[in-house]
């Protein structure tokens, strides 16, 4: 019994009832237009004659207009928003945005017509039936009702008929609630099929998700390369300076001074890059999807200086004709290569060569393999993965691994991608 009452008069049933009444309200402009068109053909008394034939003809005339209206882009977002709020449908079962393709628009038109068509019938019953049912319930107790026009019209003069109207009126109210609950449940069951994502919607959502992940990965690479290199360089310079800090030799003091200057320069540059990337994260994906500013090949000398005395960076060719996007990514690749060498090569000398060919930029970095394999940090390995991603995004390729007793990192970046 309790379950039946909840199903008919619970919160979900009442919200779905409101949803149906809203559909009936939305049908009213179409129904009025249908009344204007059909009443001269079916009833000479005009549209205000309240003829049932005119009303149902106007209803039938309105439904095709509703279906046509549902083809407009805003129809599905509005329908989905209302259904999520009132129908009790899980949000993930419904699609977002305008309908795409013929199938999606057809399903939206079907939902809109179903909602407004059933909603109009339930709304009409909700307006007309409760006053009549309550009048039947109150009829044996009200002399005014017994002498009313309603009693004479429905031939309710007999006392036993009037008392029979009490349970009949209550049953009418329960029947109305049952019809509204059933109609609401029907719409809730149809909503995922008619308003759910189509294959085109799923493809568009997958593309949006891929774009979001690409932007996030791009920003993550920027943070990893810039901050990771800065921390490695600062650690090396600070460690060397600490070892020589107590020495009285002028050369050692000069080295300490240069190390501190390199630390200052590296941290200042990295703070600027970090602030910019964090600013892009705050702005959102649309602003972060553009080209990220940052140092390019013109900053190789500063990069080599900050990497320490064991790093030798050379370049050849007219690097100024390298497109900005390629120059920036090439700088990050060299930067990450130096960071990995400083972290895993145990202070061994590192050589980096950047050569510009006709339509390709070649990067080669080498350092001797350490005597024992370096310890790998938990979760490490993102640097080489990021180098490969940078090269592939430009249509190039990158490779890293031991070759003839040295660790070699190589990358080829086509110039055409940067243009």
UniProtKB/TrEMBL annotation:
Domain named Signal transduction histidine kinase subgroup 3 dimerisation and phosphoacceptor is located at 216-285
**Which Enzyme Commission numbers does its entry carry?**
2.7.13.3
Q: Which reaction does it catalyse?
A: ATP + protein L-histidine = ADP + protein N-phospho-L-histidine
Looking up Gene3D superfamilies in the UniProt record yields: 1.20.5.1930, Histidine kinase-like ATPase, C-terminal domain
Q: Which domain of life is it from?
A: Bacteria
Task: List residues traversing the bilayer.
Answer: 20-42, 48-74, 112-141, 161-188
Q: Which UniProt keywords apply?
A: ATP-binding, Kinase, Membrane, Nucleotide-binding, Phosphoprotein, Transferase, Transmembrane, Transmembrane helix, Two-component regulatory system
Q: Which InterPro entries match?
A: HATPase_C_sf (IPR036890), Sensor_HK_TwoCompSys (IPR050482), Sig_transdc_His_kin_sub3_dim/P (IPR011712)
Q: Where would one find the signal peptide in this protein?
A: none
Pfam families reported in the protein's UniProt record? HisKA_3
Q: Name a GO molecular-function annotation.
A: kinase activity
Q: Which SUPFAM superfamilies match?
A: ATPase domain of HSP90 chaperone/DNA topoisomerase II/histidine kinase
According to UniProt, the name of this protein is histidine kinase
């Amino acid at each position: 019994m309790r379950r039946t009452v909840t199903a008919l008069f619970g919160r979900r049933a009442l919200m779905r009832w409101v949803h149906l009444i809203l559909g009936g309200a939305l049908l009213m402009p179409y129904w009025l237009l249908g009344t204007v068109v059909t009443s001269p053909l079916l009833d000479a008394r005009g549209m205000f004659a309240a003829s049932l034939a005119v009303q149902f003809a106007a209803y039938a005339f309105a439904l095709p207009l509703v279906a046509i209206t549902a083809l407009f882009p805003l129809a599905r977002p509005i329908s989905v928003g209302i259904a999520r709020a009132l129908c009790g449908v899980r949000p993930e079962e419904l699609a977002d945005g305008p309908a795409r393709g013929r199938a999606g628009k057809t399903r939206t038109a079907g939902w809109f017509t179903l909602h407004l068509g059933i909603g109009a019938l339930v709304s009409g019953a909700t307006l007309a039936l409760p006053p009549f049912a309550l009048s039947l319930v109150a009829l044996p107790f009200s002399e005014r009702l017994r002498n009313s026009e309603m009693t004479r019209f429905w031939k309710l003069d007999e006392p036993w008929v009037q008392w029979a109207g009490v349970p009949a009126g209550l049953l009418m109210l329960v029947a109305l609630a049952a019809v509204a609950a059933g109609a609401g449940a029907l719409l809730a069951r149809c909503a995922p099929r008619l308003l759910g994502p189509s294959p085109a919607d799923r493809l568009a959502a997958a593309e949006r998700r891929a774009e979001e992940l690409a932007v996030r990965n791009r920003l993550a690479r920027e943070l990893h390369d810039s901050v990771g290199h800065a921390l490695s360089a600062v650690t090396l310079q600070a460690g060397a300076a600490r070892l020589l800090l107590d020495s009285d030799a002028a050369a050692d003091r000069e080295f300490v001074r240069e190390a501190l200057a390199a630390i200052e320069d590296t941290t200042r540059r990295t703070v600027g890059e970090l602030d910019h990337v964090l600013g892009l994260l705050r702005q959102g994906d649309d602003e972060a999807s553009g080209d990220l500013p940052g140092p390019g090949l013109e900053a190789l000398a500063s990069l080599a200086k900050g990497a320490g005395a064991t790093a030798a960076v050379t370049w050849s060719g007219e690097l100024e004709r390298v497109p900005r996007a390629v120059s920036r990514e090439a700088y990050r690749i060299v930067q990450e290569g130096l960071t990995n060498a400083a972290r895993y090569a145990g202070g061994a000398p590192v050589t980096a060569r950047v050569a510009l060919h006709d339509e390709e930029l070649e990067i080669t970095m080498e350092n001797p393999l350490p005597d024992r394999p370096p310890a790998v940090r938990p979760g490490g390995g993102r640097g080489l993965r990021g180098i490969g991603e940078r090269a592939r995004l430009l249509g190039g390729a990158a490779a890293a691994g031991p070759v003839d007793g040295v660790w070699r990192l190589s990358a080829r970046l086509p110039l055409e991608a940067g243009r």
